[in-house]
Amino acid sequence: MTYDLIIVGGGPAGITAGIYASRQKLNTLLITKAFGGQIARKAVMIENYPGFEEISGIELIQRLEKHLRKQKIDIERDGVRKVKKVGEKFLVQTTSKNTFEAKAVIIASGADPRPLEVEGEKEFIGRGLSYCVTCDGPLFEGKTVAVIGGGNSAFEAAIFLSKIAKKIYILEYGKVVKADAENQERVKKIGKVEVITDAALKKIQGKQFVNSIIFEDRKTKQEINLPLEGVFVEIGSQPSTSFAEDLVDFNEKDEIIVEFETCQTKTPGLFAAGDCNVGKVKQVITAAGEGAKAALSAYEYLQKQK
Ligand SMILES: Cc1cc2nc3c(=O)[nH]c(=O)nc-3n(C[C@H](O)[C@H](O)[C@H](O)COP(=O)(O)OP(=O)(O)OC[C@H]3O[C@@H](n4cnc5c(N)ncnc54)[C@H](O)[C@@H]3O)c2cc1C
Question: What predicted TM-score, i.e. pTM, was given to this entire model?
Fold first, then answer.
């Protein structure tokens, strides 16, 4: 069977594309590893999604998924490992070795957390090192932890952890943090969060679990050993787009290059929406907007093929 459209990704972009495609009566399959995407990692309330003055990441995901499941759409929980084009058709291969066929594809695979790339990182994943404060934070009750990064995500992670952990360090590589003034103010008020700037993380170490990190004070060039039990990585994200590398062009950040008006990639019938493309603003609202745009563009493309 050949679908009209396959959507890869179950975050805000993919779910919105699914809702729009189904309303256009496209025979659609949505394939996703998990529902919700990055918003599942949101540590504090979302306060900038219109219509909801305050909503938790988890509740927003549940509402998005419920809305999607009301549509006439097929859903597969699987990872996509390759998208190919053979003649006019796309073949979408999954990690569980299924292959699905479609006339058009929307890539809405978003982004994964950027790794630290320091000694000890791989060794201590799940043993004191985490990329998701909402998932793993509660395991660190009464402990000392560090958040690596100095942007809003790092500060929000520290705010979340302050209700659980005994002491929190924020380690920022640069001279100044990038978090907005409001988050900086909130962190200051907590009292048990210490912000260390000019800190270059060198190593995560421990026995069975993390018991300290080593960072270089970039001002004095001194190496400092900081005893702690948990490390949370909040240094941004990288697009998960490699499965489409034969069919799209990337910019220097591995984001998929698309036409602004349509979200169309260089391959006719292949679209990319949300955080995986070159769009500068990476937010729920823009991802959802692009999901809608890509689905309606795919509909137009399919009409022209008839
Ligand atoms: C900690 C944090 C806090 C944030 N706070 C806010 C906020 O307050 N307000 C706001 O507007 N935005 C916020 N954002 C940004 C927002 O979460 C993203 O812009 C938005 O989630 C992007 O949606 P997306 O659908 O493009 O991608 P994602 O949310 O990344 O979703 C991608 C989906 O694709 C799936 N996927 C990935 N690869 C594959 C594959 N190979 N095969 C199958 N499925 C795949 C994933 O499982 C996931 O379901 C935050 C992000 C983070 C990390």
Answer: 0.91
